[in-house]
Design goal:
8 helices, globular, five-stranded mixed β-barrel
């Protein structure tokens, strides 16, 4: 039987292009499944005899193999879908038995890293870039506050590949703020940006994103979403309009937790949030803020290019 692996191997070899591509595909697929003892593949001279050896016309063999190719592609796609449904070890493993495999919408790291899809000129959405005070949109309801996480007793621990941080965050209720440049659901981000260009989204729950913060509507599987509380939002806004001098510029990895997916812990007071990690310049607010925490811990933070002395 010609397996999907063998068909794909033949496809990669031929590119399914050229005048004799289909016939070469026949030969490659047949050779892949007919090997000598010891795993040696058939010789080229032997592969050239495949159609006649099977006693079938070359056009008939071409139709048969093209049918097998299509089945193989469907089989591969189905397998990929099943793989996507299984949490990847290290990327989505939480302590306290919290885990899921969806981190963004769309759930593709390469999509968010592609500069075409950046929400600002300074990086992807998960850099949590603040450009102006109006970037913060007020919403109402339950939320996780991760901005103070990083060191114990609210640690943010890096995953083994450094792409995410498992953060313990406080769970709160009431007014909270979404940073519009850091919405990790791209369709919701676009809808919010488009709506808030024409309307005043500074009234609570008027921004489209607010309607998606509960019941896993923003990130499937998330029971709580990480946002900012009013006090933190006020502090960040004040640093933009009237800097206090308490801002600390850092360089390294930090957890960009805005709109990250979270699951409540049993205590009801905290949640585990899986925050994307950005490696680069960022800022922390406070006299005791530490840029480097050690022990695979990273601070939760945001970035404002206008407060970065390295930006011209």
């Amino acid at each position: 039987m010609v397996t999907p692996f063998c068909v794909l191997n033949a496809m990669m070899t031929t590119g399914i292009l050229g005048q004799n591509a289909v016939y070469t595909l026949i030969e490659r697929a047949y050779a892949c499944t007919h090997t000598r003892k010891g795993g040696n593949e058939m010789k080229v001279s032997e592969r050239s005899l495949v159609p006649s050896a099977l006693g079938l016309p070359r056009w008939m063999m071409a139709k048969i193999v093209l049918g097998v190719v299509m089945c193989g592609m469907l089989w591969t796609a189905a397998a990929a879908s099943l793989d996507a449904a299984v949490p990847q070890r290290g990327l989505s493993s939480f302590s306290h038995n919290h885990s899921w495999s969806i981190h963004f919408v769309p759930n593709s790291q390469s999509f968010w890293d592609f500069s075409k899809n950046w929400t600002t000129n300074y990086g992807p959405a998960y850099r949590d870039t603040v450009l102006e005070p109006s970037n913060f949109l007020p919403c109402e309801g339950q939320f996780a506050l991760c901005f103070h996480s990083g060191p114990e007793p609210l640690p943010c621990k890096l995953t083994h590949d450094g792409r995410f941080a498992n953060c313990t965050c406080d769970v709160m209720d009431g007014e909270n703020y979404v940073l519009e440049t850091a919405i990790l659901n791209y369709p919701v981000y676009r809808a919010t940006i488009d709506a808030c260009q024409d309307e005043d989204c500074q009234v609570p729950d008027t921004a489209p994103v607010c309607k998606f913060l509960t019941n896993g509507k923003l990130i499937p599987g998330a029971q709580v979403i990480s946002t900012y509380d009013p006090e933190l939002t006020t502090n960040i806004r004040n640093e933009i309009t009237a800097p206090t001098g308490l801002l600390k510029n850092c360089d390294g990895p930090f957890a960009g937790c805005m709109t990250a997916p979270c699951q409540p812990n049993k205590d009801g007071a905290t949640a585990q949030c899986l925050c994307p990690v950005f490696w680069g310049h960022f800022q922390l607010v406070g006299e005791d803020a530490e840029c480097e925490l050690g022990d695979d811990l990273v601070p939760s933070a945001s970035y404002n290019p206008y407060l970065d002395p390295s930006v011209p």
